[in-house]
Amino acid sequence: MDVKGLMTLEPLSNLSSLVTLKLLNCGEGLTCRGLQPLLSTGGQLKELRLSFSPKFFSGWEDVEGGGEQQTHFVSSTLHELMTDDAAGFLSAPICSFLSSSLTKLKLCGDWSEGIERFSKEQEDALQLLSSLQELEFWQFHNLQQLPAGLHNLTSLKELAIHSATLSSLPNDVLPESLQKLVIIYGCNEELKRHCRGLEGTIPELIIH
Questions:
Q1: 73: closest CA among 47, 53, 109, 101?
Q2: InterPro entries, from UniProt (predicted)?
Q3: What is the spatial distance between Cα 122 and Cα 112, in angstroms, rounded to a whole number?
């Protein structure tokens, strides 16, 4: 769905049977206001994919603050999320709300030029996603370090890295639950060499 010009998701908030929502070319003006009814009690949204939405999650606080409606937002139905608003998404209120449902997360760095590492608050928020099984970092071209504390994601089975400038992975970054590590096109040779040294410690290692 091309939603260029749309400022909130309120026009879609009554689509209670919606299971998959893909929003393309969102633009900087679109925020998540109107999203929660789709993935809370009464909603059925399982998969959400967003592109070119650098400020999408900036509207979360406005929704959460909202009076009687807040009591209906008890738990989330969302299983899969792709977003290029990594900075906005990685906040304690959002990750706490999705902690019991989200199993697959793809963070895209299209709007994250210059980011070399995540803040302590963002790292702590990511660790709240206790049900997360698959995590992917896509096109963070300046990222020097993965978020600390990934080893605390005890349900994580697959980690994928695409087009990142990382040269290595910290020794304690990988959780014991990890079954698959994927280093995809665009990563530097130092990272590839480092990950080849992990062969035998992870059941499945894929390096392109």
A1: 101
A2: LRR_dom_sf (IPR032675)
A3: 14
Residue 3 lies in a domain: no
Q: Which domain holds residue 140?
A: 10-207
Among residues 81, 76, 48, which one has the least CA distance to residue 64?
76
State pLDDT tens for residues 25-81. 877 888 898 888 898 877 899 999 998 888 899 878 654 444 334 434 567 899 999
Q: What is the number of structural domains in the chain?
A: 1
Check which CATH number belongs to the domain holding 92 and give it: 3.80.10.10
Asked if residue 126 belongs to a domain, the reply is yes
One-character DSSP codes across 157-200: -EEEEES-------TT-S-TT--EEEEETT--HHHHHHHHTTBT
d(CA 32, CA 7): 9
80-83/104-108 β-pairing: parallel
The reply to whether 61 falls in a domain is: yes
pLDDT in the model for residue 69 = 43
Q: Is 2 a domain residue?
A: no
62-92: buried (b, 16+ CB within 10 Å) or exposed (e) per residue? ebeeeeeeeeebeebbbbbbbbbbbbbbbbe
